[in-house]
Amino acid sequence: MLRVLLGINGLAMLAALVQAPDVGHWAERYLELAAVVEPLLLIGLGFLSLFRDSLWKMPLRLAQTCVLALAGGLAAALFLYARSLALADGGAVLRAVLLAIAAAGLLLAYFELRSRAFSPAQAEARLAALNARIRPHFLFNSLNAVLSLIRARPQQAEAALESLSDLFRAAMRDPCELVSLADEIALARQYLELETLRLGERLAIDWQIGAVAMDLPIPPLMLQPLLENAVYHGIEPSPEGGTVRIVIGRRDDELHIAIANPVAAQVQHAAGNQMALANIRERLALYYDLEARLETEVGDHRYEVRIILPCQRRTPLR
Length: 318
Description:
- The protein is of the alpha+beta class.
- The chain is built from ten helices and seven strands.
- The chain has a five-stranded mixed β-sheet, with helices on one face. The protein has a two-stranded antiparallel sheet with strand order 1-3.
- α4 runs antiparallel to α5 (91-117), α7 (154-171) runs antiparallel to α8 and α9 packs antiparallel against α10 (271-288).
């Protein structure tokens, strides 16, 4: 919807530039066009949202034809209404219909080209490359946590190795397959248990999980890289340690995940932290396009990362 709004208004600005007698009257002409374009655009988006499920079930070309017919029909209805109020002449109706169909056709062509550019095969290859960047840090850091226990606490090291095998198995999943929220939380808990064995009382964990469906599908390895950053940048540099807080809840149709950790005054966020954030942000874009986002906030001795996902049932990319 955002791309449609921007695209149509961009075309209206170009039309205003062509029709205006000079650049000084460009904004004035655009406002005149917007008074006609915006109601038509918003009504059209409303109808498309209403008939979205039906359009998805149609063959592509038939659905595109229906969208073009809707755009032309709404333009005709709007200008016939304007003519009945003596606000438009008869010749303007046909021109409005043709312009509406042309604008809709341009946007449909853009969306089709965009979907081909982001084909499932390309998205799958990109996700595999992004996950390949995450796994080495994840696996080697987990292994180092176990190695640090072997001599001092061999029994705990044995239990940690069992958890590590589960972590390895989870990390080697197909990156295109979504996992349940319950599985992602279980993976995060296992990782934090390994870090707790290594850091002891310096690491405190505060889980705050609201009323969320645990079978909700989300992309894999969302929590663990952020928790790894929270431990590495927030807990390890501080002799007294601190608390990593994980808050998971649902607001309307969105899943909100927030991870907060303390920040020592002398510690700056390293490039590895930004690399992990960029990695997750790009993976969210591949899975959800503009419907998901990642936000960061630096407060008073506190660093927080928030992930907002749509609570929708998603099919795998392949």
